[in-house]
Every structure is written in structure tokens, then in C-alpha cells.
Amino acid sequence: MDDDGSLVLVVDDIEENLKVLSDTLTQAGFHPLQARSGERALQVAAKARPDLILLDIKMPGMDGFETIGRLKADPATADIPVIFISALNQLEDKVNGFRAGAVDYVSKPFQQEEVVARVGTHLRLRQALRGVEREREKSERLLESLLPAPVASELKETGASEPRLFKDVSVLFTDLVDFTRVSAGLSPRQLIGELNDIVAGFDGIIHDHGCERIKTIGDAYFAASGIPEPNPDHALCLARAALAMRDWLAARNERSPVRWLMRLGLHSGEAVAGIVGTRRFIYDVFGDTVNMASRMEAASEPMRVNVSGATAALIAGRLPLEARGALPVKGAPPMEMHWLG
Fold first, then answer.
1. pLDDT tens for residues 278-294?
2. pLDDT exceeding 90 applies to what percent of the chain?
3. What is the phi-psi region of residue 277: left when phi exceeds 0, alpha when psi lies from -120 to 50, beta otherwise?
4. Fold of 7-144
5. For residues 89 and 46, is the Cβ–Cβ distance under 8 A?
6. DSSP bridge pairs for 165
């Protein structure tokens, strides 16, 4: 007995056949619905969305072939499996039924065991396919949460994503000030809650400004603009996002018992981006531009945005800048820096 509560639509113009099939399905634990014509079958299928349809081929008016054609043409009913009801000796009908999209057939006169077995088999197959589809959708959602949308799409469509050199990008790093000292006074649950809230707030701002969060590294936040989609205003978009992030954190401090300060740094140039890893995909960005953006953050001050001369040149006249002069940078000659905003 297949007591799974599945809805099975039985379509036949002969009352006796409807009764026999409905009684057989009910005894097996299924929930039968009835339709005495192809037209009525289309109405019931569209409204009730049965899990399977038993469809007679020979009916007056709209026959089984036309009915299944209409069912398959409607996206709402196209995926419902159809089992044809055919006379035992009508081989041609069965062949044409399969060509029309049927998954199986049941022969007249009906054998109860055959009906239950065929219906149960195809319902289990459909349930399994739905399970596979749900897992596929979950995998796609996970992939899209880990990777930028264009990269996730490329990976789904081709199975790979080629690394690319981007000639004009901007990179942002932020870092929470005195993170170790502040976090020492928080429970693990409180700490993760604080970081989740801050990262979620930053993610929204980055998204709203057309930029891309690359990853978080502890309490550091790494974002870029111009990757993976080129953006001629990459520096301006990311600079505006940086100011919005700073202002958001300042506003959060006014309503939160835990106060956080952060440094922000931006640099612009070229970078290489691509997927790293095979078991756990990570979309990462590499190059001197990334390193220099990190140096800009390290040379910043709490709640200030420090930008390199390269970034300042791209946003000059569009956002307020205050020159700081050439300052020492770890592993590089002194670099021109500017306060933003």
C-alpha cells in the first residue's frame, strides 16, 4: 500500500471505469480526482495540480492525445506525469501515447495490482526527481551566496570559471579597531552576533553601490568595484560605499551597547580575480592593488577613509579630499595619501 496522500486525476468518459480506478486508488492510499472529458481534465489539473494523471485515450470531443498535448504546453501542468489508459491490443495507441509525452500505460480491462504498481512507481520517481531538484536549487543558492552572480552563472553553465585580469578596479579594506580588546568582553554568541550584524549592514551598502564583497577575514572586510563586471566609475562607487559604511557604523554605535570603530583604506589599479579551490569555492582577488589597499587601511585612523593617490585622482572634484602627502608604506616607497570625506 502506498499511503502517501498523492493526488491522482483519473480521466475517462465511462462512469464505470472512473469508479473502478478511483476505488482501486483509494484502497491503495491515494486520493483520486475525477474528470469525464479532456476539457474538464485541463481545468482540474490546472487548479488541483495532481501528482499524476491517468488519462484515457479514446474519449469523445477532446481525446487523450489532444489532452496531453494541452497539458504539456501549459507550464503549470507540463511536469505532471501522465499514464495512458489503453485497450490491451492497441499497440499503435501506446506508441503514440509515449510520443505525446506519456510515461507509461495501463491496459483495459484493468488489473488492480497493475494499476497500483504503475501509479506507485511513477509517483516515487516524481518524488525522487523533486528531491533532486530541491537539492539542485539549494546548491545553486549556496553557490550564489558564495560567489558573485556572474561567476556563479558561468560556473553553472560551463562547469568552470576562467581567471581574469581586470585593468581598472578599486579595492577596499576595513578593519575594526582594538578588536581583540573589545571582543574579550563578549561571549562567543555576542561576538558572532555583532560581527553578523556589521557584515550584514556592510553587505547591504556594498550591494546598493554596485560593488562586490570579496570576503571577510576575521574582523576585516574586503570589497571591490569593477570586479567581476567592469565599471568605469569603480573608484567613485567604492568610495561612496566606504563613506556610507563609516556613517552606518557611527549610527549603529549610537544605539548599540557595543561600540566599534574602524579604519578604511582604498586603492585603485589592476588585479587578477578567479575561483580558488575545488571542494570549497572561494572567489578571490590578487595583485599589488589588493596589497596596497590593505596598506591604505593600515595607514588610516579610526572612522576615517584613507585613499591612495591613484584612487584620489579618479574621484577628484566629485568627492571631498584632503591631501596627507607622501607617507611610508610597508614594502614600498612612500605613497601619496588623502583623507576622503
1. 666 778 899 999 999 99
2. 72
3. left
4. Rossmann fold (3.40.50)
5. no
6. 272
